Amino acid sequence: MANRSGYSVHALYPVTQQHNMSLQKFEPQPDKKLIQLEKEIAILEADLNQAEQQVNVFIAQIRSKLYLQINRMHELADLYRQQKKAKKAKRLEQKKGQELQRATGNN
């Protein structure tokens, strides 16, 4: 900071244009608030990653259980179809037997 005489208040040398330009080249140090925000962001990102991992594990567990239940439903549906087919075949056999008895009984 220069006073009216052109000398720096903090030093005994005159403030020149070149001196001002060299000071502008230095990048300002990060603000403490900015550093704190970056730390908070890093913590939140870590929490988010941990939550995502937990959700992914939970989804995998649900898919596993659903997969088992869906397979069981397919097995039961197949068993029902087999029973239905067997019942139909048994009725056809009975019907053929009745028709055969009628045909032989009429002779």
Give me the secondary-structure topology.
Blueprint: H1 17-25, H2 32-105
Q: Look at the helices and sheets and give the structural class.
A: mainly alpha
DSSP strand (E) fraction?
A: under 5%
Helix content class = over 70%
What's the pLDDT, averaged over the residues?
81
Order of helices and strands: HH
- What does the overall shape look like? rod-shaped
Largest sheet: none
Characterise this structure.
By secondary structure, this protein is an all-alpha fold. Helices cover about 80% and strands about 0% of the residues. The protein is built from two helices and no strands.
Key phrases:
mainly alpha; rod-shaped; 2 helices; 107 residues
Question: What would you say about this model in short?
Answer:
The protein has 2 helices and no strands. It is mainly α and 107 residues long.
